[in-house]
Amino acid sequence: MTSRSTARPNGQPQASKICQFKLVLLGESAVGKSSLVLRFVKGQFHEYQESTIGVKFEIWDTAGQERYHSLAPMYYRGAQAAIVVYDITNQETFARAKTWVKELQRQASPSIVIALAGNKADLANKRMVEYEEAQAYADDNSLLFMETSAKTAMNVNDLFLAIAKKLPKSEPQNLGGAAGRSRGVDLHEQSQQNKSQCCSN
Questions:
Q1: In this predicted model, what pLDDT tens digit does every residue of 141-191 receive, in sequence order?
Q2: pTM above the 0.90 mark?
Q3: Whose C-alpha in 36, 92, 141, 184 is 20 to 30 A from the C-alpha of 10?
Q4: Domain spans of the chain?
Q5: Cβ atoms within 10 A of the Cβ of 165, count?
C-alpha cells in the first residue's frame, strides 16, 4: 500500500502513522532475552505504544540460536536499536556481552542505539557482575545501561522507553504537508494496524 502525504480520505490527519524501528536482542543463551521481550509485550506494551512517543518496535530475538554466530550480521543488519543482555549472576555472559557490543560497534549502523541489560536482578544475592563495573563499561562505550528483571518486571518498560527516547529523529520523508506534525524515521502505512498515535506531541 502506498503512503499518502496529507490527510486521509476520512479527514484524519497522518498522526496515526507508526514510527517503526528494528530492535535486536543479543546475548548468550539463558540470560533471559526472550523473557524480557515477553514481559515487555505482555506488560504495558499497548499503553506504551499508544503514548505520545508513538514508537513501534519490530523485535528480533535469536530464540536460542546464538551458536549460528556467522549469521549474526544478517540478523542485525538495518537495526536501529540493540539490547545486549547478560545475566548478573554469570560473569561469562558479561564477557560475551562485551564481545557483542564490539561487534555491533564495528559492523552495525553507526547510529545504532545500544543498550546493555543486566538481567536477573531479582537474583542479586547470587550476583557475580557488580553494578558499578557494568555501569563504568557502559559509560566508556556510550551505552544505555539498566539492570532488569523479567521475573519482577523491574526496569523492563523503562529500558524500552529509554531506547525509544534515544532513537535518532530525522526529517520525515514523503510526508508533504504533514511534515510539521510528524517526527521520526521509517514511517510505513500499516493498513489495518493504524491504531497508534505516531510522533505527535
A1: 999 999 999 999 999 999 999 998 898 655 343 333 333 333 333 333 333
A2: no
A3: 184
A4: 19-166
A5: 11
